[in-house]
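Input record (one chain):
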Amino acid sequence: MAHEQRPLIPLGIQLLVLFVLIPLFTCLGVMVGMGLLYANTLWQARWQSLGTPPEAATAFVSVDSREVTVRTVSGALFTCPEDGENCWQQLPPNVAAPVQKESNPCQPAIEWNVLPPPGQVMERRNWEECYSDAAVFVEYVRLSDGSIWRWDDFISSYLGLGSLALALVCGAMLGAVVGLLLGGLLLWYMGRRLRAMATSPS
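The corresponding structure, as predicted from the sequence alone:
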């Protein structure tokens, strides 16, 4: 009577791979995805140098989400209408100084995670715009070395949910694939060892 052939790899090991290893790496993948999303958020919301105006700035005149205007020691006005260094342009003497507009802060207030500026702050101005599904926050600082820096952040309910869903799905899929590959490698290695032990002479 022929003996029933039993599987080389115990059922407990197979269940361990199926119900422990793969879910574990799936959870780890979700955590990695969330970590990368948070790191990308910190990278995007960072201090950016606008350089130093041609003359030493003494005060901010006006700021908004697109440009900043400063007054220098000679009384001249310089504006930076875009991000990046060497953006300063002097306003003609016959042009009136820009009037500081009122920002539109969110209610309830949003706790913006502004990182510490890269130097000693002499003056600080911020601007906030709030909409039904998005918000923009910009902060300018004038440092003791005369340089002007800008920090900005943007949040959107739709964009935030989309980024979160993408991070969760991609992280879970990547973790599951890694867990499946490692589990398959483990089963292959154990099966090879068990077959070698079964065929070796006693």
